[in-house]
Design a protein that fits this description.
With about 400 residues, this protein is an alpha/beta fold. The chain has two domains: about 140 residues, Carbamoyl-phosphate synthase small subunit, N-terminal domain (Glucose Oxidase, domain 1, 3-Layer(bba) Sandwich), CATH 3.50.30; about 240 residues, Class I glutamine amidotransferase (GATase) domain (Rossmann fold). It has eleven helices and 20 strands.
Amino acid sequence: MEEKNGVLMLETGVFFKGRIFGYIGETSGEVIFNTGMVGYEEILTDPSYKGQIVVMTYPHIGNYGITYYDFESVQPQVEGFVVSEFSKICSNWQAKHNIEFLFKKYKIVGLENVDTRALTKYIRTKGAMRGIISTETDLKKLYSKVQKVPSIIGQDLVKKVSCKEVYEPFKQKGKDDIVSYALNKNLFVNYDGVVTKYKVVVIDCGCKFNILRWLRKVGCDLIVVPAETTAEKILSFTPDGIFLSNGPGDPEGVPYVYKTLEKLISYSVNHNKYLPIFGICLGCQMIGLAFGGKTYKLKFGHHGINHPVKNFDTQKVEITSQNHNFAVEIEEVEGKFYVKGNKDLIVTHINLNDYSCEGIEHKSLPIFAVQYHPESAPGPNDSKYLFEKFVELMEKKSNYAKT
């Protein structure tokens, strides 16, 4: 294996030296950390990580190799990957090869032999920031370079990860790369025993494969559309429900999605049409924006598989998988939480670490969303009930139409 020294230069001028693995080159992005002990394959391929350099706090990464069966999109999405130690040897009967092979294939720059705990503590203190991984030895030159890296604030990263054409993932139709890849790797099994009762349009802002699987498991017939699809086109499919997916970057940098959502909601209200809408992650932020709310950037984001969230309805705590840098602004009024500026949007879930918004629901319309990932991949299964809740709302639509 070719070895070459490298460095991670942060925008503050602080740097961490290490050794390059995978593709030897230079890469930049926002530096964030993930606290998961497992699930690096899902993390690497999660489209929500587009534009980011991911630091893993767990010291040993790569020991079970790359299987492809745990991919959450067609290829790695991270801009760079920083670890304490990556395992050159992997032990897993399903593994096709190690991480380094994957990184070379997709030109992903990795950096190992880094004190990732110290790096994580620094990011926690100073906040997520821009960074560059490079083999450049002139640190002053590298510092100048990192100042020119664009901020994630205001960027539209969704266009880079959304599908390019409409496809139906469980019907083996279409020529989209996502479909062909998934079918070849058996990621979208047919679910022949599943009875599909509801037609759901998925607005793909960077949707993870496991979200599609769970929607299918609960009986949804899926039509996945690009993020820029118009409200008129979406309604032409006569859906029973709309799903807004996860995705990368600043939600306010993607106005075409929440403006489309505004039109869908307006159509539903003005024509007395019952149209359930469910959002996850970026989808939650889009719903907040569509109702006049605001979003803000978290100091260092939520990235891990053990985040405690309180469900106000059940008064129970759910352990959740999370991956987001932004959140919806909320306010407390007489002991209850609402989306700031709109009391029609009730806060249903709250993060017990920093008390940020983790779930919202409209008080009269069949619209709800969560900021975390109930489909996990990786992570716990505490919140799978949300997919069933979506189906229950669509079931009510059938009854609504009869009255």
